[in-house]
Design a protein that fits this description.
By secondary structure, this protein is of the alpha/beta class. It has two domains: 2-120, NAD(P)-binding Rossmann-like Domain (Rossmann fold); 127-274, 2-Layer Sandwich (Dihydrodipicolinate Reductase, domain 2). It contains ten helices and 14 strands. The chain has helices spanning 11-23, 36-45, 55-61, 76-85, 100-113, 127-137, 155-162, 176-192, 280-292, 303-320; strands at 2-7, 26-32, 51-52, 66-69, 90-93, 117-120, 144-152, 197-205, 208-218, 222-229, 238-242, 245-249, 258-262, 269-272. The protein has an eight-stranded mixed β-sheet, covered by helices on one side.
Length: 330
């Protein structure tokens, strides 16, 4: 069985671990936290005996085929680099890093050492997103004219109630854009590429963006409106307006296996996928397939694509005036 190490044991690590065990794609061979008792408690919950009280110990001593890196955002660059230098393949939670400057040495190291590296943008690998990309690329509805994508939830309220500090503190890379706004940015780049121009506004409180709205423009007057918020709950829908039709994912587009397609008719054509699990299954399988076949990058989520997303996030933050410690001297 493919052996995973998990570095960083917060809420997203629990989701990854649960899905890995549920789908039986692999096993959790080792876990690492900066708190040994937390590591042992996590290990007891998921039948892991190899538990470490520091990230460095897991990297040095864990017997794993790959590491899923789920630390707070500001630690992604440091510990992904340490894994790559040790020759360990990495699936790193999004956002890959705080900025593009941090990401470049990771990509350079992965490529020079021929070690697999991929950003854990799990939506990219879900069948409904793959279908959406194919529908777009084959131009069945003509040219895409405008894209709207949102991701909003009451994250600030949840952070206060559950003590999830990373979402609301600048020192931990908090705010809506890097945590959930990255999803709409990803979708726009997947279908439209990098924008020519960006206009953005945000509500910044306590040095984090609680809401963020972005208008991207592309060649031939194509545009995208992207939004995120940690203040309110929305349907988090996506709408794509083509020359000859409209596509809509009505709720939680990043994981909802139901797409509505209008080609001038009413009612719309409906495409449905019945997912057996939350969806981490698909990114786990992609990672394992690439590693086992000797690929250093995923063809679906190549490193240059992730760099493009990170550079767009940097541009948006420059417009709204949001900076983190990692941006010093930029």
């Amino acid at each position: 069985m493919f052996s995973w190490g998990i570095l960083g044991l917060g809420r997203i690590a629990h989701k990854f671990a649960s899905e890995l065990l549920e789908t039986k794609l692999g096993v959790i061979a080792a876990v690492g936290s900066r708190d040994l008792e937390k590591a042992k408690a996590f290990g007891a919950q998921y039948q892991v005996t190899d538990c470490y009280g520091s990230y460095e110990e897991l990297i040095a001593h864990g017997k794993v085929d790959a590491i899923y890196l789920a630390t707070p955002h500001p630690l992604h660059a440091e510990y992904t680099l340490k894994c790559l230098q040790a020759g360990i393949p990495v699936l790193c939670e999004k956002p890959f890093t705080i900025n593009a400057r941090e990401l470049k040495p990771l990509i350079d190291t992965a490529r020079s050492n021929k070690v697999f590296l991929m950003e854990a943008m799990w939506s990219r690998f879900m069948p409904h997103i793959i279908f959406l990309k194919e529908l777009h690329d084959t131009q069945q509805l003509g040219k895409l004219l405008h894209l709207k994508a949102d991701f909003s939830f009451k994250g600030k309220e949840r952070a206060v109630n559950l003590g999830v500090r990373r979402l609301v503190e600048n020192s931990l890379g908090g705010g809506s854009l890097l945590d959930i706004g990255v999803y709409p940015v990803f979708l726009a780049q997947l279908l439209l590429g990098r924008p020519l121009d960006i206009v953005a506004s945000a509500s910044i409180q306590n040095e984090i963006d609680e809401t963020c709205q972005v208008i991207c423009t592309y060649p031939d007057e194509v545009s995208a409106y992207l939004s995120s918020s940690i203040l309110w709950e929305s349907d988090s829908s996506a709408e794509l307006y083509y020359e000859n039709g409209t596509v809509k994912i009505p709720k939680r587009w990043h994981e909802n296996g139901e797409i509505y397609i209008w080609k001038g008719q009413d009612p719309p054509e409906i495409k449905k996928w019945n997912y057996p699990s939350r969806g981490f299954y698909y990114e786990i399988k992609e990672s394992q397939d690439c590693i086992l076949s000797g690929q250093a990058e995923s063809e679906l989520m190549p490193l240059d694509f992730s760099m493009g997303v990170m550079e767009t996030l940097d541009r948006i933050r420059s417009v709204i005036g949001l900076k983190y410690e990692a941006d010093a001297n930029l």
